[in-house]
Amino acid sequence: MRKSTEQEKAAMRECINEAFWFRSVPAGILSGSLAIWALKTGKLKMKSRFGGIWPVVAGFGSLGYIFGKISYIIGEQCMDIFLKKAPDSSISSIVRRRREEEGDGELPNRFMDIIGRHQINDDEMSDVEHGILEDCNSVAFYRYSLPLSLLSGGSMYLAMKKNLLSESKLMQAFPKLPKISGGLLIGYIAGQYYYVKSADCPRRFLRFNPEGSISTMLRGDSGYFCEECARKEQDYAQQYSFDSDGSEDYIFPSADVVLELEEGIKTSWTNSFDPDLLP
Questions:
Q1: What is the dihedral of CA 56, 157, 149, 37, to 10 degrees?
Q2: Global pTM?
C-alpha cells in the first residue's frame, strides 16, 4: 500500500507495451482467425443474436487478446524488465528471491533424482519432510492433474458429441468411455509432468526446511545449512581478506591477533600432554 516509484512506473509501461505488440495482438489475430476458419468449415456452429459471424470472431479475438496480455505480464519477460529497469523495487526483490530458491534449470531434475531414484529412504526423512512431500502430492493432484484431467476428458466428450472423433466400436454399451478415459489419463499425466517442471516441490523443501537432508542434497552441500556459520564466515572474509582501498590483497593480522593465536596453540599443545587428560 505505497505509491509506485518512477522506475516501477517505467518498467510497468514497458511491460504493458511489449505485452500488447508481442503477445496480445498476435494472440488476438490468431484466435479470431481460428474462429473464422472453424465457423466457415462448420467445425464450430454458433449463432449470434446480433447477426453474422463477426461478433463471435470478435469475442474469440478479445479472449485471445486478454489471455495473451496476462500471460506476458505474469511471465518471465516482464519480470526481466523489472529487474533491469527497477532493480530496487519490491517486485524485483520477490523475483530475485524466487529465482534464488529455484536455482538453475536443473533443480527439478535433481529433485527427481533424489526422490525418484531413492537416494533417500523414507526412514531417513524427517516428519517435516514427509509433511512437505504430502503437500506436494496434494498440490500436484488438485491444482494440476485434476483440472487437466477434467479438461482433457471433457474435450474428448465434446469432440465425440460434435462428431469430430468417432466412438468406440468395441464397447457398445459405453462407446464414449474408452476415449474419455484416455483423455482423463492423459490430463493426469500432463498435470504431474507440469508440476514437476514447475519446481514448486523442491522450492518448498528449500523454503520450509532448509536444514533438512533433501534441501542439503538439492544444494549439493557436503553438510547442513548453517546461516549463522555463513554470516560469521562472511564477516571474517570482510575483515581479513580486503584492505582499506577495496583491493583483494591479503592483510596480515595485527600483533595482538598473532599473540592470541600463539597463546591458544601453546595451551592446546600443553593440554594434549597433560597426564590428567590422558586416558
A1: -30
A2: 0.47
